[in-house]
Amino acid sequence: MEIAKLGEFGLIDRLTKDIAIKNASTVKGVGDDCAVLSYPDNQVLVTTDMLMEGVHFDLTYIDLKHLGYKSAMVNISDIFAMNGTPRQLTVSLAISKRFSVEDIEEFYSGLRLACDKWNVDVVGGDTTSSFTGMAISITCIGEAAKQDIVYRNGAKDTDLVCVSGDLGAAYMGLQLLEREKSVYYQQVEEARKKNDKRALEELSHFQPDFSGKEYLLQRQLQTEARGDIIQKLREAGIRPTAMMDISDGLSSELMHICKQSGVGCRIYEKNIPIDYQTAVMAEEMNMNVTTCAMNGGEDYELLFTVPIGDHEKIQQIDGVKLIGHITDAKFGQVLVTRDNQEFALKAQGWNPLS
Amino acid sequence: MEIAKLGEFGLIDRLTKDIAIKNASTVKGVGDDCAVLSYPDNQVLVTTDMLMEGVHFDLTYIDLKHLGYKSAMVNISDIFAMNGTPRQLTVSLAISKRFSVEDIEEFYSGLRLACDKWNVDVVGGDTTSSFTGMAISITCIGEAAKQDIVYRNGAKDTDLVCVSGDLGAAYMGLQLLEREKSVYYQQVEEARKKNDKRALEELSHFQPDFSGKEYLLQRQLQTEARGDIIQKLREAGIRPTAMMDISDGLSSELMHICKQSGVGCRIYEKNIPIDYQTAVMAEEMNMNVTTCAMNGGEDYELLFTVPIGDHEKIQQIDGVKLIGHITDAKFGQVLVTRDNQEFALKAQGWNPLS
Asked: Which of B36, B248, B262, B326 is most buried (most C-beta within 10 Å)?
């Protein structure tokens, strides 16, 4: 169905009509000038992210349902990174004429799947048109008791540096998708030159073979916010001293924590968690897997520091890896390689403005 | 300066380095995964708006400073429309390579001027690139005591319908700008056809003559949120029964209030406040001025209803006009013209998706 047929209010009605409010803190959701929330006991966490077509996502790789899911998850991840609980989300979408009502419903179904997973209420937003690419802006709101909030600036000398999950896979997933896309366009180009209609027909049903690489795709296309790790840390009685989520790459995020905490760090290459598929793919593409893990970005794993006294507790948590420790600022930010060489960390993370 | 030279974090540092927090509710502003706010006593209001280049604004009309100001004001306006006090704002910007650091500083200077006017803290955001047009997404957060919040759904039979300021001027301002733009391009086209280099040189310094129409331009380019009216209503001890801001046009907003409140309304054409310049411009352009006022949009005035018992109080408030009254739903939504004819209201407001 064409979106113009429904109009802005008709579309919003259709997208939001069966939203059931799940949180007591949501007093009023969609339908007025503002959403109304109530947080008498806890502090309120607010984060926002903008995703632009062609810069942050490519609709030849990712379908709208996954895109909706990922857009919500990357914002929910920021709430977890403060040791908070996500509660509400607003979503603004700008779309061009090429999208149908069903397309937008697909996007919303992915967004709401992510919200349902973490009990987040969709409380507002804006749906408008774009003359060019698609633009997505999401704001997520959460809560935490004042004493539970973990900032980036609390890391102390001797603290242990930990990460959840494994790193570099989302980046390798993107490399894989880009490689397949360029192979595809090359083949189309060749078939056109030869005017090979049969080849062109076959290419129109082209399905790249991703077997053995499913995990890389999943990490790129189906981002998960690590609320499970937050839960495990709570159960173990561990409160991180500093924390953030890894969106731009481990190096870049470590530098943020060190800068804001006024400390240095010492990270061991051999301890950086890397999945088997990531390592295989890096070799296939002739890339250094540690560089991919340090600078790849889009992992949305948690990077955090804990007091050295929590050493035993942290080692018992499944899915968390100890990768180094915090030092005095004068020692700088150091990566110790497998062969015991030392390098200063450099933030080569993804920079949308370079 | 090129933005790539600073990078994302350098640009954010530059834009946010001298932001001083003004509100006690702002615990932590820019610089972590989330902003942290504290609202122990009041409810929290959240609103968000997305503005797309070519759809919501045209950079040949509006400079970046005014655009920043307007982007903030239209969101602040939504907080006032709930009878709240705006406190925090996040801003996400997607920009193409053609913008310099100084351009973005211009945008921010306008945004912060609007925030300073209403004591709003800029607490976060996102700055990224766009392959095509500029995209702006703003979320504004405010507060209000639970009993003070005014929704759209509280209008009752016999309530008086009021609007602040005057209507239709912002729309006429847009018509004026579009007319001058098309005249300009016509002249350029003609000069090119004749290869008239002198005319082309003169046109490169083209300054349209807007004398006598300054108010229309101001209303289009320098949007003001009507916090002053909220203040006056409070001082007069008036609590509206329903309220919203007029962004899409009076007709459209009246229909929202009537639908959500389950009532009808009777609006008198002769009472609709219209500025002299709006009337002159409508005549010049051969447009019906009432239609412009009813459907023009972008006025950002307040539309609200008050109990009939507040009749005298409301008449003493400067800048508020009584335009009609609320009726039982069965009488529908009616516009009574100057010659006593009755028409059903139609929402012909601006629809970004049609």
From this structure: B326
